[in-house]
């Protein structure tokens, strides 16, 4: 038997590659960088995108007109404007209609930028229809709850916007349409609310009688215009810093008259109100209720 080497237990061994590191205490998940709570500023783009303004970088809401529509629009616009001026003599003078509509649109944007009015649907209905007021007031209140404010910059403090009439449309008949009536589109510029019994006719003489009866009941008018001046949409935070500035050229606006009872004096005492902007109501809200569009008549600021 070989004797034990007394020094063997003290021999050095080659180092190993395995290194044992001290274990660090785990941190709560919410303190890790990739689990930080979302900042308020990161919600701003989503809030702004929910506002009814159509950004200049976005595609149009409405489909482009067909070639046939583009070719025939000037003809129908001429016919409709002649009918409108006969119905509303105050617009016989050149530019009178555009001036009135531009004033209404200017007031529309001024109200949207007024913090005392912009979140109040009833207040906004002085310059726009109920459906549109609901869209803008709700979006404004959402922005305001996060310390944001909306403003619109228009050309000059006293100058109204420049607009061009693109189309005119008339709706003849009682308002609101009774359940005993039906609504028919007779042409690109004419819609008629008639009794169900008169919904089908076989002669031109009968058609003329139906139209005359609807005209005696009353009418309201839509006018589509294009705003040729830039409209600048601005969002500022609580400190007055601009969060967004977006300029749009060629905003499309639809204005509507009150329902004018047949035989009433139609000059003065009422104003055009904005019914749609860039196809918001037509494509997003998609209301089919004409009552949502007209609301009633405003005489000297009073709804009757």
Kindly describe this structure.
It is a single chain. By secondary structure, the protein is of the alpha+beta class. It has one domain. Helix content is 29%, strand content 22%. It has eight helices and twelve strands. It has helices at 44-49, 67-87, 96-112, 121-124, 130-144, 204-217, 280-285, 290-294; strands at 149-153, 163-172, 181-185, 190-195, 218-227, 231-236, 242-248, 251-256, 260-261, 273-277, 298-299, 302-303. The strands form three sheets. Strands 2, 3, 4, 5, 8, 9 and 10 form a seven-stranded mixed β-sheet that branches. Strands 1-6-7 form a three-stranded antiparallel β-sheet. Strands 11-12 form a two-stranded antiparallel sheet. The longest helix is centred in the first third of the chain and has 21 residues, at 67-87. The N and C termini lie far apart (124 Å). The model is unreliable at 6-39, 287-292 and 297-304 (pLDDT under 50).
Fraction of residues in H or I helices: 25-40%
- DSSP, total strands: 12
Largest sheet: 7 strands, mixed
Outline type? elongated
Write the H/E string, N to C: HHHHHEEEEHEEEEEEHHEE
Stretches with pLDDT under 50, minimum 5 residues: 6-39, 287-292, 297-304
The overall number of domains is 1
The value of Rg in angstroms is 32 Å
Proportion of residues in β-strands: 15-25%
Distance between the termini: 124 Å
Question: What is the typical, i.e. mean, pLDDT?
Answer: 81
Helix and strand content put the structural class at alpha+beta
Helix count, DSSP H or I runs of 4 or more residues: 8
